[in-house]
Amino acid sequence: MSVAQASTPLSHLLPPLILGGAGFSHQIYRNPNSAQALEVLKRAFQLGLRAIDTSAYYHPSEILLGEALSHPDIVSQYSRDQYLLMTKVGRITATQFDYSPTWVRQSVLRSLQRLHTRYLDVVFCHDVEFVPEEEVMGAIGVLLEMVREGHIRYVGISGYRIDILARIARRVQIQYSRPLDIIQNWAQMTLQNDRLAQEGLDAFREAGVSCVCNSSPLAIGLLRANSVPVGDLGDWHPAPPGLRSAAKEAADYVAEQGESMAALALRYSIRRGQSLSTPEFRITTIMGITSISELEDNIAAARQVLLVSTEPRWLWADTGSSTEVSVRRAKEDDRLRAAVHNILGPWYGYCFPSPGDDWDVATKQPAAARL
What we know:
By secondary structure, the protein is of the alpha/beta class.
């Protein structure tokens, strides 16, 4: 795959599963390191998982992934056209954003260096609801310039607020006479919150978007047997105590049924996305991975959902689920899903505040900074 082939619709290239690079960050993992990244990436590539999503914000993910991708064990077996690289610009830290044209360009060039690549397949504007929309529109203009220059192949936006993502997508279609290629939304096509399917997909499709990434299918680790992940930066998860308690109760119930909450949640998100995808409008799932064991568990869960005959390149070709097995699994998952929703009760469909009352969008600072 060369930069010149960017006229190919992204929906024809994007596989149903993507490796999330946040697992190599201080937010998610204690002491992320190059050995961790290399071992996970080698195993992921062996299993056919060859699309990676990261961000400059997920420090030091880009650096660690770049070291892994340039390692002889990877370079000797996989050429650059055998995997997709996606990253983001604009968000620097938890409370620092820079969407200025100068920084957007500098950030992309830095990502190219960090990831040891001459082009990026996708670049997103990161967490767009935290900054004024005019700044987002300007940043998208810079990214489109970098597409014409050959540094980037496709351009997208990411964030939590579906209404803002849809509004920006409509504005891009009008202002730049072309649609965004892709939108990434997190934790809203999950067992806990299905608003992406209910409120977002039609709006995105109407704005000409051809691909949607559903990231955080476990709601940033909420939907699993253990508590939410705590990295070097402490417990930053946005779930309130009531939701955490309900999720724990649901996970305990699922475990009593002999199943893993994480596996159930992942299968739900993948199955939901695949059921709503078409050849021209693709929904893909980004899986946050921190270890080989987690990677293998997630792939095993995905194989119970995805059928061999429906898979494009960059995914296993001979060990997916049969139709009969997939149907049986779906029926059992549907029973467990209904039970989980009953346990979640009023917390089903709950949205995390983003950016929240403590954030001033106009100044791109915590509201307290205005005092």
